[in-house]
Amino acid sequence: MRWKISLNFVQQEGDKALFELTEKFDKIKLDSLIVTPQQIAEATARIPEPLKKAIQNAKRNITAFHEAQKPAGGGYRNPARCPLSGGDAPD
After folding, report:
1. 53 Cα distance to chain centroid
2. Per-residue pLDDT in tens (0 to 9) along the chain, 91 residues
3. What torsion do the CA atoms of 1, 4, 43, 30 make, to the nearest 10 degrees?
4. Phi and psi dihedrals of 68, rounded to 5?
5. Angle at 31 between CA 27 and CA 34, to 5 degrees
6. How far apart are CA 82 and CA 91, in angstroms?
7. What count of Cα atoms within 13 Å lies in the side-chain half-sphere of residue 59?
8. Do the Cβ atoms of 23 and 29 come closer than 8 Å?
9. Residues with Cβ within 8 Å of residue 23, at least 6 apart in sequence
10. Distance between CA atoms of residues 51 and 19, nearest Å
11. Residue 47 DSSP one-character state
């Protein structure tokens, strides 16, 4: 239930809440919520190549699994059979 409290906090306080929650849970004080291309490149360079390949393989597998789950009509239904998107909901 803590996630729900945090979500409500972020919805009410916006970026201020993100700074506070990051400091509380990650024990780091951020100056900005923006990640620069240089920071992304530096972080990517620190990931071992076998892990990068494993992540890419997992992404391919997850994408293939979900593509195979798409209904022929393009819409999705949840277990309660309620239309979620894709257009076969009655008006």
Report:
1. 20
2. 677 888 999 999 999 999 999 999 999 999 999 999 999 999 999 999 999 999 999 999 999 998 888 877 666 666 666 655 555 544 4
3. -110
4. -70, -20
5. 105
6. 13
7. 6
8. yes
9. 29, 30
10. 29
11. S
